[in-house]
Amino acid sequence: MPSEQALAKRLRKRDPEAWAGLYEEYMPKIYRYIALKVSNRHDAEDLTEQVFLKALESSGRFGWTGAPIASWLFRIARNQVIDFWRTDKTKRLTPLHEWLVDHEMGPEAVAELNADMRLILEAMAGLTRAQRDVIELRFGAGLTTAEVARILGKSQGAVKVMQHAALAALRQKLEGRCEDGQAIARHT
To answer: What's the rounded Cα separation, in Å, for the pair 92 and 101?
Structure first.
């Protein structure tokens, strides 16, 4: 991608190539981030679409402030998720692990993956908000440490510390709940 400032200028002018490049680079990351938050494939797809529509709608007012464009998109995504849960707390959920399954996996492997995902999601609920944010952005959205640092407005060192603490806490919570500690390692 071109420099952030040049890209911001092109986005503000609604340059179709700039928007296509932005969508191509960030759509999978935004989708994975949202999918972790809503646990329903259809809602995640709809919300991801809404993120890019909102970004396009607000692009005329978008001014580059030195912050990464990714942080703007993830802030829109976070707000979409908050609005999603705020409007209807009785949303129908399809457990995340049910639609992450590779349909060519055998029934035993699917059952193991489902059990592992339930354990991980339960353990993540015990993390601090900041730790969950780092884990969701790093491993859910697949962002680099530098990208997460820019989005959260923290140094890379701080993100690495939070990630280390979060993984240590997860490891401790999961210890003894998985056969010889190997269950989760199979899927990572």
So the answer is: 19
Which is nearest to 134 in space by CA: 104, 164, 108, 106? 164
Q: What is the pLDDT of residue 53?
A: 93
The pLDDT tens digits for 95-138 are 544 445 455 666 676 667 666 677 777 788 888 888 888 988 88
Looking at 1.20.120.520, 3.30.1330.60, 1.10.1740.10, 1.20.1440.170, the CATH number of the domain 4-87 comes to 1.10.1740.10
* Distance separating alpha carbons of residues 29 and 138, to the nearest angstrom: 10
Please state, in angstroms and rounded to a whole number, the distance separating the CA atoms of residues 100 and 81. 19
Name the CATH topology of 104-187: Arc Repressor Mutant, subunit A (1.10.10)
Beta-carbon contacts of 92 under 8 Å, excluding residues fewer than 6 positions away, are: 40
DSSP H helices in 39-106: 41-58, 69-87, 96-99
Encoding tokens for residue 165? 């603490």
Contact 55, 72 (CB under 8 A): yes
What predicted TM-score, i.e. pTM, was given to this entire model? 0.66
Instruction: Report the candidate in 12, 42, 31 with the shortest Cα–Cα distance to residue 136.
Output: 31
